[in-house]
Design brief:
single chain, 260 residues, alpha/beta, Aminopeptidase, 6-stranded mixed β-sheet, 6 strands
Length: 260
Amino acid sequence: MKNLKIFLFAFLGIGVSSFTPLPRSPRVGEFLLVIDAGHGGKDPGCHGVVAKEKQVALSIALELEKLVKSEMPEVQVIMTRKTDVFVELHERAKHASLNKADFFISIHCNANPNPAINGTETYAMGLSKENANLNIMIAENSVIQLEENYNEEYEGFDPESPEAYIMFSLIKDAYLKKSLSLATQIETEFKTQGRKSRGAKQGPFLVLWRAGTPSILVETGFLTHKEEEKFLYAESGQKQVALGIFNAFQTYTEEKTSPH
């Protein structure tokens, strides 16, 4: 408990400054989007019988990039990775914070010991009272253990300790409203496509916390569910998921830039 108190003090000291909105560069008529394909390289993420999360996430991310560049030329796109390489969580977030991005979208796949569980869910940074999916947060955040000097980089944060997540309930996300707006829109698009939506939620993901901008993490489906794995492994399914995210993003940006 003593170590936890020390950690919370140090983490919150960083958290306050991290949630201060960054000054924007004078980009007239442009919107900067960072697309993050989760996992990669030595970090395969979760898997199904044949599909690996790192591969599915990258395919969807590249398809999303293609759609945005083709249909929304006014939007600048930065990819955190375009090949099968390992990128540390804090480096992924730096693409958004250092470039003063307008939005950060991280793409992932889900897994569950129960093979009957399926559906999509999209997260904004936060910790809601009804959040019962700590195992998902632990799985995604535990990636930092593959990084060098992760104890120093994340101020001693232990991704496998439930107590460590207390800090997220003490930090107010300045970007929560915008993040939840897009998260909700994405889940609406998935439902329109006939997918099962598990809803827009809040979750304590380190990659979102470090982004310093409105940001979401999209769990595109469960690779541990037979039919959902087949869907996500197929090029047609990956394109459908990317289109759903794109449609939601386009609607979001149109609403934010339209005159009132």
